[in-house]
Amino acid sequence: MISRRVLLGGVGGLGAATAMGGGGYALVQREVLPGKVRLDRALGRCGDAPEPPPGPVRIEFMTWRSARRRTAVTAAIVPPADGRSLRGLPVVVALHGTGHTATSLVASLNLHHHLPDAVANGGVPPFALVAVDGGKDSYWHPRADGDDPVGMITDELLPRLGDRGARTDRVGAIGWSMGGYGALVLTRRLGAARTAAVVASSPALFSSYEDARSANRRAFDGRDDFARNDVFASLDALKGVPLRVDCGDSDPFARMTRRFRDRVRPEGSMGGGCHDVAYWQRLLRPQLAFLGHRLAGRR
Fold first, then answer.
1. Are 138 and 149 in contact (CB under 8 A)?
2. 129-162 pLDDT, tens digit each
3. Which of 90, 130, 87, 132 is nearest to 111 (CA)?
4. Strand, coil or helix: what is 246?
5. What are the two backbone dihedrals, phi and then psi, of residue 94, each rounded to the nearest 5 degrees?
6. Distance of CA 31 to CAs 24, 26, 135, 249, 262, Å?
7. What pTM did the predictor assign?
8. Is the pLDDT reported for residue 18 higher than 90?
9. How many CA atoms does the CB half-sphere of 262 hold within 13 Å?
10. What does each C-alpha distance from 225 to 104, 275, 294 come to in angstroms?
11. Residue 60's beta-bridge partner residues?
């Protein structure tokens, strides 16, 4: 009987899976045995990141002491064209994943390349992408220690953008992994009347508090905190909101994302890919188009 350690050993795991024979390989593929993500990565199923489009725009940074987060936060503003001011532009809030910041999110996904290219060459109506620091593993909801990243967005970030002339009466949201879950949390806080469109890319969704704790023990403060912020228990808050949800088949959150998609029937897809920036960058053009057209009042 092959051990879990051997099975999870990357390319070594691939050889081990082959040694198991067709039956063991099929069990991994059906996620009965652990190791599907690493097996698919070893088999080259995760795919490569596209080359970033040329002509990146200059990123603008805005830093302030957040009362809601009780710390200094930075927002990274990506305009749709170099030198374009925020005045008159709609806004999409970009929510990062675990361990990231606003700055690292923009850099890792090349958002300052992809947004201007989508607008200039993809026919996407212009808008500003604004990433903001939400905490390494806050999961974008109010925490027992007083940290409230979603409150920081609604009560601090959006008013600051509005003061600079951005249109913040109806906004969009996009997030990846923890941020994909956070985009759904933000939607619940803003409500359908103020949310123009939402994209959740590989959202970190869990079946239970125990499931969440096994993935990240700091994701929730306890069972009650998980229950208060369980998006499956508040699906009515998403009614009337244009929603797109994407996830790779080789993503550890694929099972729960399929369950979520079955419940809310959003746009988007389950396709080939892993929980990585390669998959996320390949989906950026259609996701940015989804957001831009709905912010502009188009389908």
1. yes
2. 999 999 999 999 999 999 999 999 999 999 999 9
3. 130
4. strand
5. -105, 125
6. 11, 9, 31, 11, 19
7. 0.87
8. no
9. 6
10. 28, 25, 32
11. 77
Measuring CA to CA, which residue among 247, 242, 243, 241 is closest to residue 283?
A: 247
The three-state secondary structure class of 241 is coil
Local confidence band at 44 (pLDDT 50, 70, 90 cut-offs): confident
Task: Give the 3-state DSSP-derived string for 180-194, with helices as H, strands as E and coil as C.
Answer: HHHHHHHHHHHCHHH
Q: Could you please report the per-residue DSSP string of 54-98?
A: S-PPPPEEEEEEETTTTEEEEEEEE-SSTT--STT-EEEEEE--T
By DSSP bridging, strand 128-132 and strand 167-176 are unpaired
pLDDT digits (tens, 9 = 90+) for 235-278: 999 999 999 999 999 999 999 999 999 999 999 999 999 999 99
Instruction: Please name which of 200, 185, 174 lies closest in space to residue 253, comparing C-alpha atoms.
Output: 200
Q: What is the 3-state secondary structure (H, E, C) of 166-233?
A: CEEEEEEEEEECHHHHHHHHHHHHHCHHHEEEEEEECCCCCCCHHHHHHHCCCCCCCHHHHHHCCHHH
131 by DSSP, 3-state: which? Answer: strand
Distance of CA 95 to the CA centre of its chain: 6
